[in-house]
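**Discrete fold encoding**
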Amino acid sequence: MRRHSLAALLLILAVPGANAAGSARGQLDEFAQGVQNLQAKFQQSVYDSEGRALDKTSGTLALARPNRFRWDYLEPDEQRIVADGDNIWIYDVELEQVSVRPQSMDEQQSPLAVLLDLNSLDQQFSTAEQDEKDGAQWLRLTPKGEDAQFAYVDLAFRESRMTRMVMTDIVGQRTEIVFQEWQRNGTLAPGMFTFEPPAGVDVVGDVHQGAKLEAVRE
């Protein structure tokens, strides 16, 4: 599975209304309430429809209102994905290549960023509580739109923290992400969601008008 496709999806999660604190939906609501930004570490594994391992990566992520996200894949290969609200930048360090495309509304409101928008989940997804597993409460999100790139997403919660996301696409390929060290409303590094292609790299695509080209600061 292409990493940038996953990151485009990783922008859903907020449930309006009061729910039982012990349910997955209630824990999601508590986790998302009042969030302005989120940061975490992650480990991602991809499996084919037969359960065979295809890819394993790890790194860090950050999300912020409105419609900003950043994924840094650090192991085994370095790749950076930055959504600045206007464009999505994908920088493959090893290939020395940057691709850029406009950030669509679907990408601005899909699996992790709706954590930052408590009004959009029920408009886009059907939700269903799942059986408790591995000591966590699970919630299944099924997209209502016919053109979704995935069949459903299962979210695991423990102590009002999302610990895992398992996304199954329309051909049965499964992507599992384990989250660690969540930080809510923390201090973000300057330039976290801005990007300027490094000198000498190839740039493929067009920059959407209004995009701010500022250097990413580590």
Residues 3-205 form a domain with the outer membrane lipoprotein receptor (LolB), chain A fold (CATH 2.50.20.10). The longest helix spans residues 24-32. The CA atoms of residues 136 and 158 lie 5 Å apart. Confidence is low (pLDDT under 50) at residues 11-20, 211-218.
